[in-house]
Amino acid sequence: MSKQISIFTMAATLALTTSACKMVRNMDEMHDSTQKMSGTTEKMAQTTETMSKTTDKLLDATEGMLEDTRPAFAKTAREVIIESMMKKDSMEAKLSESAALQYAFEFQKWNPRMETQQEREILFAKAVREYVRNAREYLNIHISDLDDAKVSAAKKDEEHRNLYAYVATMHKIDDTQLLKAQEEKFQPVSLFDILANGLRENAEVAHGMRHESELSLSAQAVGSVYQDVIYLMQVRMNFLAAMPLSAVSKIASEKLLGLSGKLTGLRMLVAPWEARVEDLTVVQFRDYATMINKARETRDLLMSIGVAPKADKKVAKIYLNMKLDAKSAKAVGPASQAAVEDFKLSIEALLGQKLRQ
């Protein structure tokens, strides 16, 4: 009996020992598996990071490919827009196409994540050259003289109507550039800004304040077509100043503004007249004030570089005879009256004189 117990005990001990060894092996295997899983997880993380970097590179490459094709698309778009502008009948439609032309310039789509500041400057210079070249070729405008008649807003032929629309919108900035500028913290610019900066740099060279070698690329482009740019600015100043007259008077201003109709208010050159404000909205008056302010901005630019502004004297006389009563606004209230008053103040700032009471 004692031997049987001893044999049983030995068997049980052997079984427990065998089981323990298996457990140890299993635990070692589990530890090894855990380490392998950990290694696998690390490799997966590394792979994921690599895939992420690869995806970023692919996205950047794709964006780069789109950037490479941008010049061709933009140039074609601009050509189509100019041709469309020339076919439009109303000045409003021409102005709309002209604004679209500004938005289509490549510098409006500049991306600081893909392009350097130097590349942006190249886009500025390209825009300057193309803008002036198109004024000559498409609009058939020959800039040979800067007398008052040639820079007035009184021309009624189709070439000048196209020119008026062409120069009126050079301050427009595309929403794409505005949003990108906000995101990437850079200063958005318009074609007007580029041309104005170029004129100032060239004026500084002329007055010995800057060496010619210090001119930016865009300023060099402006310098090569300096008189053309001056002419375009003179026309812009006069047209923007005259535009609101068709809305606030009974002038059907084909002769004065290049819009539809005929000039019927010659007496407004010498006699007081009441501005028509009862049918106009706050938004419209804000727009008119903007036009006048842009005209003044252009005039101030010319004066700052030593160029005498050739203001249209007829437009100035008509404004000085205008009686503008804010209380006659369509929606009588603080907003309407304030908008009319801002419009009035903008005219007085442009003319440097008070309007009739």
Relevant terms:
357 residues; mainly alpha; 14 helices; 68% helix; globular
**Order of strands in the sheet with the most strands?**
1-2
Main beta-sheet strand count, sense and barrel state? 2 strands, parallel
Shape: globular
Overall average residue pLDDT: 79
* String of helices and strands: HHHHHHHHHHHEHHEH
Number of helices: 14
N- and C-termini, Cα separation? 135 Å
Q: What number of domains?
A: 1
The residue fraction in helices comes out at 55-70%
Number of strands: 2
Radius of gyration: 36 Å
Notes on the protein architecture:
With 357 residues, the chain is mainly α. The protein has one domain (70-351). The chain has helices at residues 2-87, 91-103, 117-137, 148-151, 158-168, 175-184, 191-206, 217-224, 226-242, 245-248, 254-257, 282-304, 313-320, 334-351, and strands at residues 273-274, 322-323. The chain has a two-stranded parallel sheet with strand order 1-2. The relative contact order is 0.08.
Short summary:
By secondary structure, the protein is mostly helical. The protein contains 14 helices and two strands, in the order αααααααααααβααβα.
SSE topology sketch:
Layout lengths: L1 H86 L3 H13 L13 H21 L10 H4 L6 H11 L6 H10 L6 H16 L10 H8 L1 H17 L2 H4 L5 H4 L15 E2 L7 H23 L8 H8 L1 E2 L10 H18 L6
Parallel strand pairs: 1-2
Helix pairs in contact: 1-2, 2-5, 3-8, 5-9, 7-8, 9-12, 12-14
